[in-house]
Every structure is written in structure tokens, then in C-alpha cells.
Amino acid sequence: MTQADESQANRLLKYSDDARLLIINADDFGRSHASNEATFRALKAGVVSSTTLMVPCPWALHAMQLLSEHPDIAFGVHLTVVCDVPHYRCRPLTSRDKVPSLVDESGFFYATERIPEWLAQLKLGELEVEFRAQIEAVLAASLRSTHLDWHCLYNGGRADIFEMTVKLAKEYGLAMRVFDPAAGEGLRRQGLPSNDHNVLDSYSLDIAEKSALYARALRELPQGLSEWAVHPALDTPEMQAIEPQSWRVRVTDFDFLISSQAHEIIEQEGIVLLSYKPLQKAWQERKPGSETSR
């Protein structure tokens, strides 16, 4: 990536080239009560600056009520069409007969280990119907989101899914959350801000060293726009039952995100915490079809 590319998001968002911008997005709002409570606390008292809502999940209504009561919270729609744990599953909002390629033999979304099989037979038109249903459910609740992204589908999983989701983002006046700079290349050519660096996923970090790794990542944060995908949750029997092998990932996330250490390092380093609101504004202002000079 050239220096011009590295500072493009800063320029589009009206920050200096040397500014260190960071979005800390709490994924999976609505997935569980433990996730909802931890995410809400981390947004209000911690360093989390954005979240993403899983509309088909059992605790989505609770999350939506919190968002309704706190309209200052910036959130995106975490488009959910994959089940990531075997015994805690959800279904499409759309009736099964309209989106048969989205569900497995039991009528639920496909499990993560079957994603390649699912993508091979998935009908794009049916997926768009369900994506729209999830976006419209948020609008029907009188909520206004800032961006779109995918749950357990890295950059959509297929090029045509990526392009279809970008089309929906533009139609609904939202930004797109892109996980690596290469995938966002076409967006940047259109003058649409996206991450300058690979998104840090909290599931990739060692649990025992989590606090130290986060602290170092903040101190070494590069210039430009970075993002962390974090997954805070409380240590509850519910959380341990949903993720018996990995619940500590979420609890250790929460512990750091509400810590005084996190606040102090961000202040000391002069890091600018952002939500997707300024990105959304830049997306809305960009004329369709126009491209920036490179």
C-alpha cells in the first residue's frame, strides 16, 4: 500500500495524515444476554465505540430496546446467515419457502464448518431477500444504523455477495465494514473510506496474554484508520453454555475494554476513537459512480 493510500481515509474523514484513528467495534450485539450486557457497559463506560446487531438472534429484541433507549450508540447490522456454535442456532427472518438455499436440512442457517458447501449452492437473490429483511427489521423498530457487515463470512464469502452488500449499503445510506485493505480497494477508488489496515479479530489473540497484547497494539497503532473486532461478554452460565470452549475470549475482551489501562493508553497515545458515523457521512456524500484520482 502506498503512502497516498495509507492516508486516504484520514483525508476523507478530515483528519491529518498522521492521525491514528481507531474503531473498536463490539460484534454480536443481540446474540446473548451476556453479550448484550457486556457490550452495553463497554460502550457506555469502556472504550468500545461501535457495535453490530445480530437481528435473527434470540436476544436481538433486548439489544434493540437498549439501542432505542440510547440513540447515541452507533451500531451496524451484523448480517447473520451462519450459525457459529452447534447448539445455539437461528433461522432466517424470511419464510423458509422464499429462501430455501439459506437453510440446512433442519431449517436453520448452515453451521460454520459447512460454509463452503453452503456458498456453492447459495442463490444470491435469496440472500439479498434475507439481508433486506434484517435491515428493514431495524428500520421498522425506528432505529438508524451506520453500516453493514457479515457474521462469520469474511468479506461476504464470495465476490458477488460482497458487491451485492455494497449495493445495499449505498441504497440504505450506510457505510461498509471491510476486513482487509485489499477487499476495500474498489471502495477507495470511489472515494469511500474503509480500513487502511487488516482488522484485528479478538478471537486470534492468546487469552492468557490478552491484556498485554491489546496494550501493545494500542501503543503501536499505525497512522490511518484501524479497526478492532472485539466480542465482549459477561462470565455467566449462559455464556459458558453457548461457548464451552471459547467463552473466555469474550470475558477477557470485556475485562480489557472497560479497564482504566485501556482509557489511559488511548489518551496517552493521542488515539482518536471513531464510530462508523463519520464513515457513513462520507459514503452518503459521495456521488454514485464517481472515482477519485489515484
TrEMBL record:
<dbReference type="GO" id="GO:0019213">
    <property type="term" value="F:deacetylase activity"/>
</dbReference>
<keyword id="KW-0460">Magnesium</keyword>
<keyword id="KW-0479">Metal-binding</keyword>
<dbReference type="Pfam" id="PF04794">
    <property type="entry name" value="YdjC"/>
</dbReference>
<keyword id="KW-0378">Hydrolase</keyword>
<dbReference type="GO" id="GO:0046872">
    <property type="term" value="F:metal ion binding"/>
</dbReference>
<dbReference type="InterPro" id="IPR011330">
    <property type="entry name" value="Glyco_hydro/deAcase_b/a-brl"/>
</dbReference>
<dbReference type="GO" id="GO:0005975">
    <property type="term" value="P:carbohydrate metabolic process"/>
</dbReference>
<dbReference type="InterPro" id="IPR006879">
    <property type="entry name" value="YdjC-like"/>
</dbReference>
<keyword id="KW-0119">Carbohydrate metabolism</keyword>
<dbReference type="GO" id="GO:0016787">
    <property type="term" value="F:hydrolase activity"/>
</dbReference>
<protein>
    <submittedName>
        <fullName>ChbG/HpnK family deacetylase</fullName>
    </submittedName>
</protein>
